[in-house]
């Protein structure tokens, strides 16, 4: 009984500053909610995606903004999927292709092959991929990541920032990560 009580208290303990999260300089990110900086090449990001989905299910009121790190090719891919409203399935298809099938995403022909492989209209996909709007979003995302890196806030993927104020120090305990993110969202 005592062990159960201690375990219960450990799970519900309030996240601690400088242990579970840190305060970041004001004005770097102006987004409310959760900003996750991710990379499709990152196995930890692929695993963390289930945490993101869990938060969306538990708290649909919390805005989640995912920002691709890496290069413009990958950022364009992400924003093309968003612009075409292909949803989480397409986002996960990139992860699965990269992480599980070891598909390449370096060139435009790789992007065309991705679209064809998953039954998307490849011509339309590439028109959007090469559009000014998608290019602008991709460049803005990369500028944000560079700015956060230069300020010492971003040091690798995945990075989670809540309400533009707090950087979550992720651990292996998924439930604790989720409770920390939700706790910070409510501050």
Please state how the strands of the largest beta sheet are arranged side by side.
1-5-4-2-3
Radius of gyration: 18 Å
Name of the CATH architecture: 3-Layer(aba) Sandwich
Shape: globular
Outline:
This protein has 187 residues and is α+β, with helices and mostly antiparallel strands. It has helices at 2-12, 43-58, 72-83, 87-99, 108-117, 122-129, 132-150, 174-185; strands at 21-23, 34-38, 64-68, 159-162, 166-168.
What does the model show?
With 187 residues, the protein is α+β, with helices and mostly antiparallel strands. It has a single domain (2-185), classed as Glutaredoxin (3-Layer(aba) Sandwich). The protein has 8 helices and 5 strands. It has helices at 2-12, 43-58, 72-83, 87-99, 108-117, 122-129, 132-150, 174-185, and strands spanning 21-23, 34-38, 64-68, 159-162, 166-168. A 5-stranded mixed sheet has the order 1-5-4-2-3, with helices on both faces. The relative contact order is 0.21. The model is unreliable at 2-6 (pLDDT under 50).
């Amino acid at each position: 009984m005592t062990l159960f009580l201690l375990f219960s208290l450990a799970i519900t303990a309030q996240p601690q500053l400088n242990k579970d999260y840190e305060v970041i300089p004001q004005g770097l990110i102006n987004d409310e909610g959760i900003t996750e900086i991710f990379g499709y090449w990152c196995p930890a990001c692929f695993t963390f995606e289930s945490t993101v989905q869990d938060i969306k299910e538990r708290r649909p009121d919390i805005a989640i903004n995912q920002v691709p790190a890496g290069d413009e090719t990958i950022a364009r891919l992400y924003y093309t999927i968003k612009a075409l409203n292909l949803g989480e399935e397409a986002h996960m298809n990139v992860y699965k292709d990269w992480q599980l099938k070891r598909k390449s995403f370096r060139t435009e022909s790789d992007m065309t092959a991705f679209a064809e492989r998953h039954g998307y209209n490849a011509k339309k996909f590439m028109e959007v991929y090469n559009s000014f709007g998608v290019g602008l979003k991709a460049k803005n995302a990369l500028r944000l990541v560079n700015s956060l890196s230069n300020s010492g806030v971003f040091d690798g993927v995945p990075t989670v920032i809540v309400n533009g104020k707090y950087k979550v120090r992720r651990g292996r305990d998924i439930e604790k990560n989720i409770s920390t993110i939700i706790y910070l969202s409510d501050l």
